[in-house]
Amino acid sequence: MGDSQISFGAGAVYLDFFEDLPRHCAAAGHQSSQFSPLGQRETAAIGVRSTSLASWTANDGAAKGTICDVDEKFGVNAGAYGIQGNDNRAFIQIGRGDDYQFCKPNQTPFEAAFAPGNYDPKLLVLTFLGNSAGRWANNPTATAQDVQRTISQIPSDVPCVFLTSVPVFLEETNDERMRAQTAIVNAFEQSGGHCEVVSGFTAGTRAAIEGQPQFFRQNDAGEVSDPHHPRPAATRLFLDEITPALCEAVVTAIEN
Q: Which of 93, 109, 112, 124 is most deeply packed, by most CB within 10 A?
């Protein structure tokens, strides 16, 4: 689960990775048996535009509205992969349909998602960064609050991994996100909660993707037209770079 990077470029790549997790993690030295607690599973990737942890942990107001309100321009607010047998992107409205029960009165989207009879995942992976970069980079109190609310609303028996998202085109944007990553990782580590954390922003991932126009949508003149949503090839490079850390985090999460 994450933000618009899943909707616009990363979703199908994440779906492929987590659908065949043992194979992808074998090169990092992990055995298939380490993933047996996941059992026979279905995998999905859901990304909602302009959201972050503050959106998923809010029970009312504009923050919750970014998830639950109908987008006035497009009529739907989310991209989903792997739901209802559709492994291609299908734009949907969160809160409508049996597979998207995230929006209930007086409940946060996380509380609604994990209510009895709704989602009961064997593994939850959260991937966010951009929409809270300024908040997390500059406000330690708000960062800690986002983490504490997240930890309190995810059932303790649900293995959880928090992964910061893919670097984007502009250096200055990535510089802020790097500071935000440091803040959110520290907050998770200090929380005592059960979510494992993976730092996706590394020297390697930035060097591979930052400033590389071939990994971003371009206009007819060859100029980058969407610097915030890396294309699938960039997400594949990102996952190649962080696979050892991500696999280790998943194994730790499902064994604890």
A: 109
DSSP string, 16-37: HHHHTHHHHHHTTT--GGGGGG
Rounded distance between C-alpha atoms, residue 177 and residue 137, angstroms: 7
For the chain, what is the domain count? 1
Q: Which residues in 81-110 are b (16+ Cβ under 10 Å) and which e?
A: bbbeeebebeebbbbeeeebbbbbeebbbb
Among the listed residues 14, 13, 32, the one whose alpha carbon sits nearest the alpha carbon of residue 22: 32
Helices 171-191 & 140-153 angle (0-180, nearest 10) = 60
Which structural domain range is residue 96 located in? 4-255
- What CATH number does the domain containing 83 carry? 3.40.50
Q: What is the pLDDT of residues 112-128, one digit of tens each?
A: 999 998 999 999 999 99
Closest of 54, 49, 44 to residue 17, by C-alpha: 44
pTM of this structure: 0.95
CA 121 to chain centroid: 15
Helices 11-19, 232-255: crossing angle, 10 deg rounding:
40
